[in-house]
Amino acid sequence: MTATFTDSSAVIAPAPGTTRRHALTSPLTHWPSILRTLVRQAPATAAYLAGLVVTTATLASSSPHAVHWLVASASTNLHNMTIDPLRVLVISAFWVPSTAWIWLLAPLMVAVMAPAERLLGTGRTMLIFATGHLGATALTVAAIGVGVDRGLLPHSLAYALDVGPSYGLVALAAVLATRLPARRTRRAAIAALLFGLATAVIIGGDFTDAGHLIAALIGLALSRIVTGTARVAREPGKSHGGTNVCLPSVPAGRKSSGPRLLRCGYARCPSMIHATGSRHDRVLTRPALDYERASLGSVRVPVSQR
């Protein structure tokens, strides 16, 4: 650190290179806290990523012949699916084609799977991932089988190498696109995703490109069924007068310290509550809503339709 004295107050400046060195070492010193945050907020993503790191380390420490045998035995190709489909459907998601793929898949899992787990919960995230992985794999293998039997595709595709979690990640990405807040943004994201995957199918023509497009369509179909919000508990069974009970996204029991707006926890509900002590005024109305639950304990606040 360098101190420069002038006629006014002293000016203290960092030594040359200190700022850059701090910027380079800061991410390295904070990685334990980043990992703890990932494990706490997205445990399934962290466990899955750890499994991929273990299998990738196994490939890195194996001979080329062993690497080919490990990847080929775990591939969801027509040959393996005919002999032992359940085994390869499960283990294929925990292997990568080569060690270099982990540097691409790890950031994608953090960018796609972790936000999905925080938004939808662990159970829904794994359901979407598994459905996308299994559904896209089964459909592509069935299409390859028909093509090989009729002579439309080469017989070598029956022994193709196909491992990795990409199908499940694409399905999750499609669901995340449907959860974007603005309608125009949602439509643009879905259109861009489908257009990019369809372009890859037309240009590349590989069966894995077709599998990615199928996985995206599976994710879009599941988005109509899976409805969940981040850390929000909704009571779908309780109703009053035939209408559902809607809960705010602020945890129950928190005391109100002044005027504030509480957004409803249900993702498709645009209603808000203006909480000022024990008084609650509707700011935005929603049809067919009789009761909303405020954040001031477990009190149910009646809201009339307007």
Would you identify the CATH architecture of the largest domain? Answer: Up-down Bundle
Structural class: mainly alpha
What level of helicity do the residues show?
Answer: 40-55%
Indicate the low-confidence ranges by residue numbers: 2-11, 228-306
- Give the amount of beta strand, in percent: 5-15%
User: Mean pLDDT across all residues, rounded?
Assistant: 75
Q: Tell me the strand order in the biggest sheet.
A: 5-6-7
Q: How many strands? A: 9
Give the class-level CATH name of the largest domain. Answer: Mainly Alpha
Shape: globular
User: What's the SSE pattern?
Assistant: EEHHHHHHHHHHEEEEEEE
- In the CATH hierarchy, the third-tier topology of the largest domain is known as Rhomboid-like fold
Number of helices: 10
Q: Give the N-terminus to C-terminus distance in angstroms.
A: 66 Å
Estimate nothing, just give the exact number of structural domains. Answer: 2
Radius of gyration: 26 Å
The main β sheet shows up as: 3 strands, antiparallel
